[in-house]
Amino acid sequence: MTSRHSVHRFADAVTLEEAVISWKVRLALVVTLCFTLLFASWSAMTHVDEAVKANGQFVPQGLIYRVQSSEAGILSSIAVKEGDRVEKGDLLLKLNNAPIDADEKQALARMAGLQARRIRLQALLTGTEADFSSIDSAYSDLIRDQASLLRTQIAARESNLSVIDTQLIQKKTECEQLANQIHTAKGRVEVDRALLALQEELANKKLVAEVTRLNAKRTYLSSQADWNRLQNQYEKATQALDEVKKRRRTTEAESRQQGSDELGQVNSDIAQAQELLNRLQERRSLMEIRTPVAGAVQGLRTQTVGAVIKAGDVLMQIVPADTEMMLEVRIPPKDIGFVHPDLPVVIKVNSYDFGRFGTISGLLLSVSPSTELQDGQAEKKPFYRGIIRPDTRFVGSQQYPILPGMSAEADIITGERSVLAYLLKPLLLPHHGKGERIEEMVHP
Predict the structure, then answer these.
(1) Highest mean pLDDT: which of 10-14, 213-217, 267-271, 289-293?
(2) How far apart are alpha carbons 241 and 166 in whole angstroms?
(3) Tens of pLDDT along 355-394?
(4) Cβ-count burial of 168 within 10 angstroms (0-12 exposed, 13-18 middle, 19+ buried)?
(5) How far is 381 from 265, CA to CA, in rounded Å?
(6) Do residues 49 and 417 touch, judged by C-beta distance below 8 A?
(7) N- to C-terminal Cα distance for the chain?
(8) What does the CA dihedral 393, 395, 397, 399 come to, rounded to 10 degrees?
(9) Each residue of 94-150: pLDDT tens digit?
């Protein structure tokens, strides 16, 4: 009796336990079904973007200024670094100008010497006092030499003219003496002519002897000869005086002409020396390499002071501040079927953590018509080149700038579909490849 009662109680306990387990299973199934229905509803209503991922870097669109060195030299200082923003005319690099200093020093000394010569010649030609105050006192030796030469030239000129002036005085005195003698001789001739006429008249009347008439005639002829001789001497003396005067004028003219010719040559040499100085100053300015426009420094080729720079070397590039930035990306060939211009793009700039600074939007402007090979890789993989225009040149609320050469990752939005379709895709497309490069991003 007791054994039968125990079996009955055990059977009731098993039945009760099965009832409890069955209730829990049903509850779990209901909860699971509810969650499944909720998830299915959410996944059917929630859509995700389909995006092609492409990597690339920002490049400036338009004219980029290449900064080149017009002169060869040694780099003495670097005033900028990669990415610096500069204003028009800012100093970028400076070359050692020691060779130009030596050439300029020599050219300045030559210029000072030529200017001192010009002042000397002008004073010599005009007869005024030479004023060397316009020449730097550092060239006092040159000034002293030219002043001494001026005194020597003036003394030599005055000495030559003094000799000629002495000859002029002698010739003038001689002419004056001969003129006086001619005047006296002329008076004697007139007296002797009158006496001869008287003697001839008396001789004709037989009042004097023939000898007396002949003596009178001889005296007249002698005085006439003296007068003619003196006139000839006077004529020669005046010719000699004219020659001395002419020689004086010639000496002065030759001196002036020589000074003028030398002054003309000096002026020509000064012009050439000034041209040389201008070229040296221009070369000196070229040793200081300055930016032609405001913008950003890109592609700084050397950062080593003392590096040898060749004429024509490209030292860096300046991207103008107003140049529009474009993102140039490489699109895998397997994804090109989903890509076409005018697609929206989400850009993540690698230099700024997108989790902290966020992303920027953009627009795909163009896609290359055929593939290109990627340079700088051991295996040159083909890609399509895409050009994306970002909506802004800054990242984040504080507007961190996008600079040329910054790398970025672009998600090109090619379409959208529901999460449910995405989850069922492996079932609907059993042959779907595992290597598909399309990324789905869930909208919140």
Answers:
(1) 267-271
(2) 11
(3) 888 899 999 999 999 988 876 555 678 999 999 999 888 8
(4) middle
(5) 72
(6) no
(7) 71
(8) -50
(9) 888 888 888 899 999 999 999 999 999 999 888 889 999 999 989 999 999 999 999
The model carries a pTM of: 0.55
Q: Are 353 and 394 in contact (CB under 8 A)?
A: no
Q: Say if residues 182 and 227 touch (Cβ distance below 8 Å).
A: yes
Whether 349 and 113 have beta carbons less than 8 Å apart is answered as: no
Tokens 């010497």, residue? 113
Q: Which residues on adjacent β-strands are paired with residue 143? A: none
Residue 46 vs residue 212, higher pLDDT: 212
Burial class of residue 73, CB neighbours in 10 A (0-12, 13-18, 19+) = buried
Q: Locate tokens 């229905």: which residue?
A: 37
How many Cα atoms occupy the beta-carbon half-sphere of 146 within 13 Å? 24
Listed in sequence order, the residues at least 6 apart from 255 whose beta carbon sits closer than 8 Å to its beta carbon are 157
Q: Which of 66-75, 199-208, 244-253, 317-326 has the highest mean pLDDT?
A: 244-253
| 151 sits in which H/E element | helix 140-204
Q: In the structure encoding, which two tokens stand for residue 162, read together?
A: 């003094």
